Amino acid sequence: MGVGGCVSPGRGGRKPAPAQENYWTVPREWAGETCFIIGGGPSLHQFDAALLRGRRVIVINRSFRMAPWADVLYFCDGYWWTGVDGPEVREKFEGKYIITIAHGIKDPIVKILKNTSKHELATNPSELGHGTNSGFQAINLAYHFGATRIVLLGFDMKIAAKATHHHGGYGAPREIVSHVLKTSMLPHFAKLAGPLQAAGVTVLNANPDSAIDCWPRLPIEFILDGRGL
Protein backbone atom coordinates (compact mmCIF):
# COMPACT_ATOMS: atom_id res chain seq x y z
CA MET A 1 0.00 0.00 0.00
CA GLY A 2 2.33 2.73 1.18
CA VAL A 3 0.73 4.78 3.92
CA GLY A 4 -2.33 4.77 6.12
CA GLY A 5 -5.67 5.98 4.91
CA CYS A 6 -8.04 8.51 6.39
CA VAL A 7 -11.70 9.00 5.63
CA SER A 8 -12.00 11.83 3.16
CA PRO A 9 -13.50 15.07 4.50
CA GLY A 10 -17.24 15.10 4.07
CA ARG A 11 -17.39 11.38 3.26
CA GLY A 12 -18.00 8.19 5.16
CA GLY A 13 -20.79 9.65 7.27
CA ARG A 14 -18.44 11.31 9.74
CA LYS A 15 -19.15 14.75 11.10
CA PRO A 16 -16.54 17.50 10.76
CA ALA A 17 -14.03 17.66 13.59
CA PRO A 18 -15.29 19.77 16.49
CA ALA A 19 -13.55 23.00 17.35
CA GLN A 20 -10.54 22.57 19.58
CA GLU A 21 -8.81 25.61 21.06
CA ASN A 22 -5.43 24.28 22.05
CA TYR A 23 -3.90 22.63 19.01
CA TRP A 24 -0.24 21.83 19.33
CA THR A 25 2.32 23.88 17.39
CA VAL A 26 5.08 21.91 15.66
CA PRO A 27 8.52 23.25 16.68
CA ARG A 28 11.12 23.87 13.95
CA GLU A 29 13.57 21.50 15.59
CA TRP A 30 14.91 20.07 12.32
CA ALA A 31 15.63 23.28 10.43
CA GLY A 32 17.80 22.54 7.39
CA GLU A 33 17.98 18.80 8.12
CA THR A 34 16.97 15.67 6.22
CA CYS A 35 13.92 13.73 7.40
CA PHE A 36 13.15 10.12 6.48
CA ILE A 37 9.49 9.09 6.55
CA ILE A 38 8.74 5.37 6.84
CA GLY A 39 5.41 4.39 5.31
CA GLY A 40 3.78 1.01 5.18
CA GLY A 41 4.44 -0.13 1.62
CA PRO A 42 5.48 -3.73 0.90
CA SER A 43 8.73 -2.54 -0.71
CA LEU A 44 10.12 -2.29 2.85
CA HIS A 45 9.49 -5.94 3.63
CA GLN A 46 13.19 -6.70 4.11
CA PHE A 47 14.46 -3.17 4.78
CA ASP A 48 16.82 -2.73 7.72
CA ALA A 49 15.61 0.45 9.41
CA ALA A 50 18.73 0.45 11.60
CA LEU A 51 20.43 2.12 8.62
CA LEU A 52 18.49 5.25 9.57
CA ARG A 53 19.57 5.40 13.20
CA GLY A 54 20.95 8.81 14.09
CA ARG A 55 18.83 10.52 11.43
CA ARG A 56 15.52 12.35 11.71
CA VAL A 57 12.78 9.78 11.24
CA ILE A 58 8.98 9.82 11.19
CA VAL A 59 7.20 6.46 11.32
CA ILE A 60 3.61 6.10 10.18
CA ASN A 61 1.18 3.82 12.00
CA ARG A 62 2.42 0.26 12.43
CA SER A 63 5.78 1.11 10.87
CA PHE A 64 6.86 2.03 14.39
CA ARG A 65 7.58 -1.67 14.85
CA MET A 66 10.39 -1.30 12.33
CA ALA A 67 11.92 1.74 14.05
CA PRO A 68 10.59 2.14 17.62
CA TRP A 69 13.42 4.63 18.22
CA ALA A 70 12.16 7.08 15.55
CA ASP A 71 11.76 10.74 16.51
CA VAL A 72 8.06 10.85 15.66
CA LEU A 73 5.15 8.46 15.27
CA TYR A 74 2.31 9.84 13.16
CA PHE A 75 -1.22 8.44 12.72
CA CYS A 76 -4.41 9.92 11.33
CA ASP A 77 -7.20 7.56 12.35
CA GLY A 78 -8.33 7.76 15.96
CA TYR A 79 -9.51 4.15 15.94
CA TRP A 80 -5.97 3.00 15.15
CA TRP A 81 -4.92 4.47 18.49
CA THR A 82 -7.91 3.55 20.63
CA GLY A 83 -8.84 0.20 19.10
CA VAL A 84 -5.83 -1.26 17.31
CA ASP A 85 -2.23 -0.43 18.18
CA GLY A 86 -2.31 2.28 20.85
CA PRO A 87 -1.47 -0.09 23.75
CA GLU A 88 1.49 -1.54 21.86
CA VAL A 89 2.76 1.93 21.00
CA ARG A 90 2.61 2.95 24.64
CA GLU A 91 4.70 -0.07 25.57
CA LYS A 92 7.29 -0.07 22.78
CA PHE A 93 7.64 3.32 21.10
CA GLU A 94 10.71 5.19 22.34
CA GLY A 95 10.45 8.39 20.30
CA LYS A 96 9.86 11.97 21.36
CA TYR A 97 6.49 12.73 19.78
CA ILE A 98 3.24 10.96 18.91
CA ILE A 99 1.16 13.19 16.64
CA THR A 100 -2.24 13.03 14.95
CA ILE A 101 -5.07 15.05 13.41
CA ALA A 102 -7.65 12.67 14.87
CA HIS A 103 -10.11 14.39 17.16
CA GLY A 104 -11.41 12.91 20.37
CA ILE A 105 -8.04 11.57 21.49
CA LYS A 106 -7.79 12.33 25.20
CA ASP A 107 -4.40 10.72 25.80
CA PRO A 108 -1.96 13.41 27.05
CA ILE A 109 1.00 11.80 25.28
CA VAL A 110 -0.60 12.44 21.87
CA LYS A 111 -0.12 15.85 20.24
CA ILE A 112 -3.15 17.05 18.26
CA LEU A 113 -2.90 19.18 15.12
CA LYS A 114 -5.80 20.73 13.26
CA ASN A 115 -7.06 18.99 10.13
CA THR A 116 -7.56 21.64 7.45
CA SER A 117 -9.70 19.19 5.44
CA LYS A 118 -7.90 20.49 2.34
CA HIS A 119 -5.69 18.54 -0.07
CA GLU A 120 -2.86 21.05 0.00
CA LEU A 121 0.20 22.02 2.04
CA ALA A 122 -0.72 23.68 5.32
CA THR A 123 1.74 26.42 6.28
CA ASN A 124 0.35 27.06 9.76
CA PRO A 125 2.46 24.85 12.11
CA SER A 126 -0.64 23.92 14.08
CA GLU A 127 -2.35 22.46 11.01
CA LEU A 128 -1.92 19.67 8.47
CA GLY A 129 -3.37 19.30 5.01
CA HIS A 130 -5.51 16.18 4.66
CA GLY A 131 -4.73 14.51 1.34
CA THR A 132 -6.85 11.49 2.40
CA ASN A 133 -3.81 9.68 3.79
CA SER A 134 -1.27 9.80 6.58
CA GLY A 135 1.70 9.89 4.20
CA PHE A 136 0.54 13.21 2.74
CA GLN A 137 0.11 14.51 6.27
CA ALA A 138 3.50 13.22 7.42
CA ILE A 139 5.20 15.12 4.58
CA ASN A 140 3.43 18.27 5.74
CA LEU A 141 4.59 17.48 9.28
CA ALA A 142 8.23 17.15 8.22
CA TYR A 143 7.91 20.53 6.51
CA HIS A 144 6.68 22.05 9.78
CA PHE A 145 9.64 20.57 11.68
CA GLY A 146 11.86 22.54 9.30
CA ALA A 147 13.27 19.71 7.18
CA THR A 148 14.60 20.87 3.83
CA ARG A 149 15.08 17.34 2.46
CA ILE A 150 12.38 14.72 2.86
CA VAL A 151 13.00 11.11 1.90
CA LEU A 152 10.00 8.82 1.44
CA LEU A 153 10.30 5.09 2.18
CA GLY A 154 7.49 2.63 1.67
CA PHE A 155 5.37 5.16 -0.23
CA ASP A 156 4.56 2.53 -2.87
CA MET A 157 0.93 3.56 -3.47
CA LYS A 158 0.27 0.18 -5.01
CA ILE A 159 0.09 -3.49 -4.09
CA ALA A 160 3.22 -5.54 -4.66
CA ALA A 161 3.59 -9.34 -4.57
CA LYS A 162 -0.05 -9.51 -3.42
CA ALA A 163 0.86 -7.60 -0.25
CA THR A 164 -0.70 -4.32 0.85
CA HIS A 165 1.85 -3.47 3.58
CA HIS A 166 5.25 -4.57 4.81
CA HIS A 167 3.73 -5.32 8.22
CA GLY A 168 0.81 -7.48 7.16
CA GLY A 169 -1.84 -4.80 6.80
CA TYR A 170 -5.15 -4.30 8.56
CA GLY A 171 -7.37 -6.89 6.91
CA ALA A 172 -8.89 -4.91 4.04
CA PRO A 173 -9.34 -6.88 0.79
CA ARG A 174 -6.57 -6.22 -1.73
CA GLU A 175 -9.03 -5.10 -4.41
CA ILE A 176 -10.46 -2.40 -2.17
CA VAL A 177 -7.03 -1.26 -1.05
CA SER A 178 -5.85 -1.00 -4.66
CA HIS A 179 -8.89 1.05 -5.65
CA VAL A 180 -8.49 3.46 -2.73
CA LEU A 181 -4.81 3.94 -3.47
CA LYS A 182 -5.40 4.80 -7.11
CA THR A 183 -8.46 6.99 -6.75
CA SER A 184 -8.37 8.59 -3.29
CA MET A 185 -4.72 8.81 -2.21
CA LEU A 186 -2.30 8.86 -5.12
CA PRO A 187 -3.71 11.91 -6.96
CA HIS A 188 -3.12 14.29 -4.05
CA PHE A 189 0.66 13.97 -3.67
CA ALA A 190 1.32 16.09 -6.75
CA LYS A 191 -0.45 18.98 -5.00
CA LEU A 192 2.43 19.12 -2.51
CA ALA A 193 5.21 19.18 -5.10
CA GLY A 194 4.99 22.80 -6.24
CA PRO A 195 4.52 24.43 -2.82
CA LEU A 196 7.34 22.38 -1.28
CA GLN A 197 9.71 23.24 -4.12
CA ALA A 198 8.81 26.91 -3.74
CA ALA A 199 9.60 26.65 -0.02
CA GLY A 200 13.04 25.21 -0.78
CA VAL A 201 12.18 21.66 0.27
CA THR A 202 13.55 18.73 -1.75
CA VAL A 203 11.58 15.48 -1.73
CA LEU A 204 13.07 12.14 -2.82
CA ASN A 205 11.14 8.91 -3.26
CA ALA A 206 13.27 5.96 -2.15
CA ASN A 207 11.34 3.41 -4.20
CA PRO A 208 12.15 3.40 -7.93
CA ASP A 209 8.96 1.39 -8.51
CA SER A 210 6.63 3.70 -6.56
CA ALA A 211 3.44 4.88 -8.24
CA ILE A 212 4.18 8.41 -6.98
CA ASP A 213 5.97 10.11 -9.86
CA CYS A 214 6.00 13.78 -8.88
CA TRP A 215 9.40 13.49 -7.15
CA PRO A 216 12.67 11.83 -8.18
CA ARG A 217 12.66 8.07 -7.54
CA LEU A 218 15.98 6.64 -6.42
CA PRO A 219 17.17 3.48 -4.67
CA ILE A 220 17.59 4.02 -0.94
CA GLU A 221 21.29 3.06 -1.28
CA PHE A 222 21.87 6.08 -3.53
CA ILE A 223 20.29 8.35 -0.96
CA LEU A 224 22.05 6.96 2.09
CA ASP A 225 25.49 7.21 0.50
CA GLY A 226 24.89 10.80 -0.52
CA ARG A 227 24.43 10.43 -4.26
CA GLY A 228 20.79 11.53 -4.07
CA LEU A 229 21.19 14.34 -1.54
Structure in words:
This protein is of the alpha/beta class and 229 residues long. It has one domain (34-224): Alpha-2,3-sialyltransferase (sialyltransferase cstii, chain A), CATH 3.90.1480. It is built from 5 helices and 9 strands, in the order βββαββββαβααβα. The protein has helices at 78-92, 134-145, 174-185, 190-198, 220-224, and strands spanning 34-38, 56-60, 72-75, 97-100, 110-112, 114-115, 127-128, 149-153, 202-205. Strands 5-4-3-2-1-8-9 form a 7-stranded parallel β-sheet. α1 (78-92) links the parallel β3 and β4. The longest helix has 15 residues, at 78-92. It is globular, with a radius of gyration of 16 Å. The model is unreliable at 7-16 (pLDDT under 50).
In short:
The protein has five helices and nine strands, in the order E-E-E-H-E-E-E-E-H-E-H-H-E-H.
From the alpha-carbon coordinates, what is the Rg to the nearest angstrom? 16 Å
Mean pLDDT: 84
CATH architecture level-2 label: Alpha-Beta Complex
Q: Could you give me the name of the CATH homologous superfamily? A: Alpha-2,3-sialyltransferase
Shape: globular
Low-confidence stretches: 7-16
- In terms of structural class, how would the helical and strand content be classed? alpha/beta
Along the chain, the helix and strand elements come as EEEHEEEEHEHHEH
Distance between the termini: 26 Å
Strand order of the largest sheet: 5-4-3-2-1-8-9
* Beta fraction: 5-15%
